[in-house]
């Protein structure tokens, strides 16, 4: 049986990343409530702000959420006057998502809350350490996406055999 060699503490990395993300989500949940939003609403609003005109179905895919769940979040954001659905000119069944002017101050609050969490969490890092951390996590993410793509391809090949 072939054993895998790991660098010291390599196996702990996954647990550390997951635990760190869980703590961050918990803090963001609490802070998002102070402005009357859920973390999911915050995430959807932020994603639309980075990709104005995104189709609702594509947003669901990017966020790894069920389309009906995204639709409910959009319903709430639309009722709050932050987002509007516009018909997709190339697909009459689809909608494109756009921010309304009222979203700008909410996004400012969201960004301020994000900074109020991350700035002190990262304050002990020198700028070059932060850049290296971001680059390293970005590389890790890219490698994992490649592994995921390879596994999807190999599982489709295996199931076809």
Automatic annotation (TrEMBL):
Pfam families: MarR
Sequence ranges assigned to domain HTH marR-type in this UniProt record: 10-142
GO biological process terms on file: response to stress
GO MF annotation terms: DNA binding; DNA-binding transcription factor activity
Superkingdom of source: Bacteria
Gene3D superfamilies on file: Winged helix-like DNA-binding domain superfamily/Winged helix DNA-binding domain (1.10.10.10)
Keywords (A to Z) from UniProt: DNA-binding, Transcription, Transcription regulation
SMART domains per record: HTH_MARR
Name of the protein this chain belongs to: MarR family transcriptional regulator
Lineage start: Bacteria, Pseudomonadati, Pseudomonadota, Alphaproteobacteria, Hyphomicrobiales
């Amino acid at each position: 049986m072939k054993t895998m060699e790991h660098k010291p503490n390599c196996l702990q990395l996954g647990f550390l990343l997951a635990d760190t993300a869980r703590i961050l989500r918990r803090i963001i949940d609490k802070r998002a409530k102070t402005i009357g939003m859920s973390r999911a609403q915050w995430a959807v609003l932020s994603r639309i702000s980075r990709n104005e005109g995104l189709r609702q179905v594509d947003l669901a895919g990017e966020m790894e959420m069920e389309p009906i769940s995204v639709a409910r979040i959009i319903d709430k954001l639309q009722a709050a006057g932050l987002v509007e659905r516009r018909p997709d000119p190339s697909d009459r069944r689809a909608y494109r998502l756009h921010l309304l002017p009222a979203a700008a101050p909410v996004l400012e609050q969201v960004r301020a809350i994000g900074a109020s969490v991350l700035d002190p969490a990262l304050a002990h890092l020198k700028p070059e350490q932060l850049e290296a951390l971001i680059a390293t996590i970005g590389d890790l993410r890219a490698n994992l996406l490649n592994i995921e793509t390879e596994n999807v391809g190999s599982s489709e090949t295996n199931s076809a055999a």
